[in-house]
Amino acid sequence: MKITLLTVGRLGRMAEAQLAQDYAARATAAGRALALGPVEIVEVEARKPGKAAEAEVLRPHLEGAHVIACDEHGKVSASRAFATHLARLRDDGTRKLVFLIGGADGLDPSILAAAHETIAFGPQTWPHALARAMLAEQVYRAATILAGSPYHRD
């Protein structure tokens, strides 16, 4: 199952971008034997400001995918439950999984409505650059949980 972290905005050489890329690479390596991955980070930018313009550049990447949007009102789950959910999606035949992280104002309502589900990192507000790294780390953690690696400790 190919996993894409689809994000609005470009981070360039920021430390958070390097951290997210590192965890995506680790997730790809850990998930290879589990049919999870590759894991890639795709950054998009709208030519105009606003959520509607961002929705237009996000939409083409969603075709044929199971879409999980990151949203402050989304479901919060523990890492093991997250890993189990990814395994269930894979086992149910999902070939393409896309996680969405919106811009500074969040995701357009049309994109949220198109998502199959929403998740949150808790009630706090996180910078978008850090949310990318956190999401990539959770995908890596899920792969290690499913592989029986000692990385995750309950």
What does the model show?
This protein has 154 residues and is of the alpha/beta class. It has a single domain, classed as Alpha/beta knot, CATH 3.40.1280.10. Helix content is 42%, strand content 21%. It contains five helices and five strands. The protein has helices spanning 15-31, 51-58, 79-91, 109-114, 128-147, and strands spanning 2-8, 39-44, 66-75, 96-101, 117-119. Strands 2-1-4-3-5 form a five-stranded parallel β-sheet. Helix 1 packs parallel to helix 5 and helix 3 packs across helix 5 (128-147). The longest helix has 20 residues, at 128-147. The chain is globular.
List the helices and strands and how they pair.
Elements: E1 2-8, H1 15-31, E2 39-44, H2 51-58, E3 66-75, H3 79-91, E4 96-101, H4 109-114, E5 117-119, H5 128-147
User: How many structural domains?
Assistant: 1
- What would you call the structural class? alpha/beta
Question: What is the CATH T-level topology?
Answer: Alpha/beta knot
Largest sheet: 5 strands, parallel
Rg, Å, rounded: 15 Å
Question: Quick recap of the structure?
Answer:
With 154 residues, the protein is α/β, with parallel strands linked by helices.
Quick tags:
alpha/beta, 5 helices, 154 residues, five-stranded parallel β-sheet, Alpha/beta knot
